[in-house]
Amino acid sequence: MPQSLSNILLHLVFSTKDRRPWLEKDIREKAHAFLAGAVRQCDCEAYRVGGVADHVHLAVRLSRTLSVADLVKEIKTASSKWLKTQDASLLDFAWQQGYGVFSVGMSQKETLLHYIDNQEEHHHTRTFQDEYRAFLTKYGIDYDERYVWD
Fold first, then answer.
1. What is the signed CA dihedral for 93, 131, 12, 46, rounded to 10 degrees?
2. What are residue 20's phi and psi, to 5 degrees?
């Protein structure tokens, strides 16, 4: 086969360091737009970026030439540097070290986009920690609670 093709949809989740509410409404929309642009700079497609003050969700089509780890490193580094330039209150901004990434079938894309679009409403009743634990369970990922949070 002379051509390499792929269509891999990822649900990527990561929080701010210690889940501090850095991404208040006034900066959140800009931060989400920046993250989408950073994803595009990695030759991937950001179908959606959303979240609340302490974490983000991204629906991303992964480039066939990039690893998930490299994508996450690039977008977290770029967005962290950018956020620190936006306001003096963000000078100490940091993302958590880790991340969660889950493969999603393209037939579930609209469901994922709807989920990301409704983050603010969703988090009136569920904490990030509860949401993340539910994802780990749903996707069958064994984890040790002592090492999930930073």
1. -90
2. -70, 140
pTM for this model (two decimals): 0.94
Q: Is residue 42 part of a domain?
A: yes
The alpha-helical segments, DSSP class H, found in the chain are 25-41, 68-84, 109-117, 119-122, 128-138
* Any domain includes 3: no
Q: What is the CATH number of the domain that holds 65?
A: 3.30.70.1290
Q: How far is CA 119 from CA 63, 68, 99, in A?
A: 26, 23, 17
Domain extent, residue 25, equals 8-147
Domain count, the chain: 1
What are 111-138's pLDDT values in tens digits? Answer: 999 999 999 898 889 998 999 999 999 9
